[in-house]
Amino acid sequence: MLIKDDPNIYFSDFGQDVYFQDKVKKGILNMPDEILAGDMIISSDYVLHVITNDFKDVNLGDFLLIDLNNEKINFEVRSKRMEDDGLISLITLSKT
User: Fold this and answer.
1) Could you tell me the domains of the chain?
2) What is the pLDDT of residue 85?
3) What is the DSSP string of the chain?
4) Is the pTM of this model over 0.85?
């Protein structure tokens, strides 16, 4: 998805607060459920969409605190990759 407008507008409207290294930035957390093992196990896949420049210091193994439904929840970074033109990145997370 190529975004020609200012992505901060989109993230300020739809994003959650993400705390990292005493800074607060915006990210959009998706938590789709995945059914595994023949409908026996349900697992959540946590993916955070962010503006790449806002999270350039985030690395594998770092912890992000995300404000989700008025509760701050800790997540560990599993991977980070840029999407399309590099303006937006996807950070895969594990709930801790």
Assistant:
1) 7-95 (2.40.10)
2) 83
3) ----S-HHHHHHHHPEEEEETTEEEEEEEE--EEEETTTTEEEE-EEEEEEGGGGTT--TT-EEEEEETTEEEEEEEEEEEEETTTTEEEEEEEE-
4) no
